[in-house]
């Protein structure tokens, strides 16, 4: 007997344009509990670190005249404390992609959005926006809390209205978003959380320390040093011929993030998931 | 009809058996084997590269700075940063079991959780100790050779305090691996464990090390950089004295991390 197959149910044609992909990526980022807890935990830790460092530096300012040279209140509250957020931004960026590989979700994602670059672009856009907002919130909160601690410790403090201060507080938020994109790039290249987080920490936190004694001061172009000594600074920082305060560090970091994402795009469009 | 099953021999996963199974895992899981090898090679290679870049500069320093120069400390201090690989080894020793699901077979074979964790700690600690000593001695000898060829002051293992500094550094690296194991046991995930380890070592170094010598001297990286690897006293700069103090404090940190890991491991589902 001949078996007649029923006409296939007319399927709705795929409508996953960029707006739909953006929406699905936003849902993923918003609803994965790990990344929420991570962001919240590290945001609180950053603000706490800012308060602790500010209190230590305030008492140094009062007791050791040597500590007054190059004292930059904005940089004191943001420079090193934001390193906690640096780690958070990178891990968030890495997990945003490696979680898809560890759960196998990447196959469902690619079945829904076969255009791999479109998927990566949507992920990058949503991650960058979320990290930018979170980064700005953390940066401003750390700055305000830190300045309050400095004032309470009777050391000089600054306000957002003073020249250069707003820039030193606002740019780190964008810088953290770029670090998250850098992490996303590494996560896409490595595809395993452990390897990608290790690579991120090695490049961002270990490399500047290894390069510290090298002739020609290559350490000033490493992500951590640019943030601690240039992007968050109002006055020029003496440490290891740092880049001048301002946009330079942000532009170099944007270059690094673009490189990582380009490598990610090339590999993702060639490899099997 | 009743089906009879062959009698199952009573479990024999005593501590010796648990140790043996942990040793088999460490030895045969390809990723750990490669990681151990990569750790030794990368740590030594990076160390030699950094030392080679700096050695000539030291030969050209002023006589006063040469007199204060501590060659043993200099050849080992890069380990303050490359210790990172030891922490990752420790984290992955447990988080790898959760990623792959082996942890459920491991706990079926060794239901006593603390026994399993103790066996893992012992085997990892021993492997990391051997790797740590290998790395430390290789760094010491290559660093001294670089200094000698650059015409800078150098030292040998026979000089007072030098053998202690080299041996203590290897033990310190093993303790860092155990700190990583503690972090991995608490978080049960590679990413979280590594992030926690990085926070405990590198982030604490950046945050406390650069803002307060008083608190910074108790952070693992600064203890390794300025006290455990040192022969000459750095006490005037506010660091812990060369010797065993830093090692003892690091052992306490590793013990706290492992105790937290053990308390959670004993209570949680796998």
Key attributes of the depicted protein:
heterodimer, A: 273 residues, mainly alpha, elongated, B: 270 residues, 13 helices
Description:
- The complex is a heterodimer of chains A (273) and B (270).
- Chain A is mainly α and 273 residues long.
- Chain A has one domain.
- Chain A contains ten helices and no strands.
- Chain A has helices at 18-31, 33-63, 73-78, 82-103, 105-112, 116-152, 165-190, 193-210, 223-231, 248-270.
- The longest helix of chain A has 37 residues, at 116-152.
- Chain A starts with 17 loop residues before the first helix and ends with a helix.
- Chain B starts with 14 loop residues before the first helix and ends with a helix.
- The longest helix of chain B has 38 residues, at 113-150.
- Chain B has one domain.
- Classes of the chains: A mainly alpha (273), B mainly alpha (270).
- At the A-B interface, helix 2, helix 4 and helix 8 of A face helix 2, helix 5, helix 6 and helix 10 of B.
Q: Count of helices of chain A?
A: 10
Order of helices and strands of chain A: HHHHHHHHHH
Number of domains of chain B: 1
Choose one word for the global shape of chain B: elongated
What assembly state would you assign to the polypeptide chains in this entry? heterodimer
Principal-axis shape of chain A: elongated
Structural class of chain A: mainly alpha
**Uncertain segments of chain A of ≥5 residues (pLDDT<50)?**
none
Tell me the count of domains of chain A.
1
First and last CA, distance of chain A: 42 Å
Strand segment tally of chain A: 0
Number of strands of chain B: 0
How many H/I helices of chain B?
13
Helix content of chain A: over 70%
Average pLDDT reading of chain B: 87
